[in-house]
């Protein structure tokens, strides 16, 4: 196999893998919009909070492997929709913890597992060397695409949704 053929095969293999991942995330997003009335990112945050109630925004960002500003935007929408509560910590009034409302808990239980959690588990299941190689390669691809100007948003979180309400079916 020549170097051009090998390059083409490797490129297609990589793109097909990315397409499969994006497809799974997109299908999840459509399902959550249709059945729960939330974006996939909102449902991902709800599921994460269901598993770890009483955490801070920074802890939530760490658990979702997301930039703090992106997760904060999603949380704000969930608070406005009555699905998440922000509570001042009794120990430190400057500290805020997050918890699900009863409505948020019901919405979270409608999706036992979300693809974002499966993606995180799959990446975490790689050896340390493979995780580093994957991270390095993807950063390089994003840089070559000139796609690094803004903090990355959560998967399939429509920034325009901030002005629209959050509905839960």
Core attributes:
mainly alpha; 60% helix; 169 residues; Arc Repressor Mutant, subunit A; two-stranded antiparallel sheet; 2 strands
Strand ordering within the main sheet: 1-2
- Total DSSP E strands: 2
Q: According to CATH, what is the topology? A: Arc Repressor Mutant, subunit A
Q: How far is the first residue's CA from the last residue's CA?
A: 54 Å
What is the helix/strand order?
A: HHHHEEHHH
- What percent strand? 5-15%
What is the class in the CATH system? Answer: Mainly Alpha
- Report the biggest beta sheet as strand number plus sense, adding barrel if it closes: 2 strands, antiparallel
Q: Structural class, from helix and strand content?
A: mainly alpha
Chain-wise SSE layout:
Layout: H1 3-35, H2 40-51, H3 57-64, H4 68-80, E1 84-88, E2 96-100, H5 102-109, H6 115-124, H7 128-144
What do these coordinates show?
The protein has seven helices and two strands, in the order ααααββααα. The protein has 169 residues and is mainly α. It has one domain (3-112, 152-163): Arc Repressor Mutant, subunit A. The chain has a two-stranded antiparallel ribbon with strand order 1-2. Helix 2 (40-51) packs across helix 5 (102-109) and helix 3 crosses helix 4. The longest helix has 33 residues, at 3-35. The chain is elongated, with a radius of gyration of 18 Å. The N and C termini lie far apart (54 Å).
């Amino acid at each position: 196999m020549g170097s051009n053929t090998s390059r083409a095969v490797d490129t297609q293999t990589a793109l097909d893998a990315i397409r499969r991942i994006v497809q799974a995330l997109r299908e999840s997003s459509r399902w959550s919009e249709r059945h729960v009335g939330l974006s996939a990112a909102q449902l991902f945050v709800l599921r994460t909070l269901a598993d770890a109630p009483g955490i801070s925004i920074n802890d939530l960002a760490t658990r979702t492997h997301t930039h703090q500003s992106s997760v904060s935007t999603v949380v704000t929408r969930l608070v406005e929709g009555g699905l998440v509560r922000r509570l001042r910590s009794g120990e430190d009034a400057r500290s805020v913890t997050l918890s699900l409302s009863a409505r948020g808990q019901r919405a979270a239980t409608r999706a036992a597992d979300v693809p974002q959690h499966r993606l995180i588990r799959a990446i975490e299941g790689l050896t340390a060397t493979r995780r580093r190689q994957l991270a390095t390669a993807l950063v390089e691809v994003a840089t070559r695409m000139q796609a690094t100007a803004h903090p990355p948003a959560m998967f399939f979180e429509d920034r325009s949704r901030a002005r629209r309400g959050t509905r839960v079916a």
